[in-house]
Model the fold of this input.
Amino acid sequence: MKQQVKKSYVSETVARLKPSGIRRFFDLASSMEGVISLGVGEPDFVTSWNIREASILSLEQGYTSYTANAGLLELRQEIAAYLMRKFRVEYNPETEILVTVGASEALDLAMRAIINPGDEVIVVQPSFVAYEPLVTLAGGTPVLVETHGDDHFKLRPEHIEQVITERTKALIICSPNNPTGTVLQKEELEAIGRIVKKYDLLVVADEIYAELTYDDEYTSVAAVDGMWERTILISGFSKGFAMTGWRLGFAAAPKEILQAMLKIHQYAMMCAPTMVQYGALEALRSGEQDVEYMRKSYRRRRNYFVQSLNEIGLHCHMPGGAFYAFPSIQSTGLTSEQFAERLLIEEKVAVVPGSVFGSSGEGYIRCSYASSLEQLQEAIKRMKRFLERL
Amino acid sequence: MKLSEKEVEIIEILEKDARIPMETLAKMVELTVEETEAIVKKLEETKVIVQYAALVDWRKVDGHEGVTAMIDVKVTPKRGVGFDEVAERIYRFPEVKSVYLMSGAYDLSVVIEGRSMSEVAQFVSEKLSTLDSVISTTTHFILKKYKHDGTVFDQGDQDRRIVVAP
Ligand SMILES: Cc1ncc(COP(=O)(O)O)c(C=O)c1O
Done:
């Protein structure tokens, strides 16, 4: 006889976590055929051949064992050189750089390395779906701060200051942002930096889209005056180098913090996959031209897509980076869930409802323009038809 | 000719897709349709854009059997005109698709398209090798085109991504 189950085996923290709203929408979209997907948060390019080739070669040569916990030293040196070259920030490859399984792992490590039970971490919304749960899983309390469409989803220092308490430990910044594409400029980061310094906070800077900015020179949070020592810089190869499936990222931070992250990584992961690290090495050594080519291509598609959205009546600010347009759908009177669901069912265009990215994403939808121009043109045609019918 | 950044960008886009609607092109480069049209017109008039062509995979067309050969040609250059004169005599033949002056083991690389191997052979033996300055020819037939002018034929370029992802 089966015993009656009295309680769940799942931890209360996990049981309380909301499943990702993206997941739910994915299930709906993937049950349909002939869908044009603007719902994808990844490049439509396949990883450059020379990167793939370098990884294949490493296998052929038999590099199939573990690397150092922190990653191949060669790769860390190359990452350090890259951060210097791109952002003018200096890290010691021996002690201040860690190669991780995606930026995702680096984010998780950052949270776990810095949070004490009950610490508060400020999460800006709309934002990448993983931040809030990662803070919770690390035993912290996410404190949400909203940014708004009429202010181009800029994070303002006064927003942060309003929610700072005794327990505030850190702030997560994502620039360029997923889903809004908003890029924070140097002066804006400096203003935020002043608050961060005033209250002695840390910044977890998710700069995974830094390679994909289109209008102005990019400033890394770590390059802002006085911020290096309080920044955990997180990036990776997924977006800029079109390597999402490879699962490779990295963190750079002052030694004390980085070594704490390394401790967790060493027990949880040992090291990132070896052949993938060889691929990444090649990406940094010879990938610049390919990145430039992809950036140019996204930029043209962004220009086309955002202008067209505005023309068909979906007001959209010009995003400075990443590959997302985040138009307002408030004029339709629908919620973002209703809009996305009806657009999917009636016109077979998949977009992600903005509400998935937090409360201030309500009234918006996320459209990835990392799709072929033909697909984008067709999507615009269908969205126009949909709007005219509403 | 010194071209502006926008002009170069327009060329790059048209080189990949000459049939792109003018409205789309204009948006991509952030100009008005009129401005874009004016630039394209100028590029055409100044022959920066020489021609708009279609890249065709003729193997897919039933009954269209053609052969392409690349011929290495050694020639005696002529005083005063060098290789230009003989190159011109060669490229005037309609069968000839391209002619390049090469460094190395031979002088001219000539691409010929014909309906059959014997037609190409006949052209080489009767027209090409009988030219005064031609010393020798070596004919290579192309068996299969994998990539041409930067475009891969028959590439599996379907989108492998799942429909919705972070
Ligand atoms: C803002 C942001 N950070 C991190 C990630 C995860 O990156 P990775 O593939 O390197 O784990 C994503 C992926 O969508 C993202 O949008």
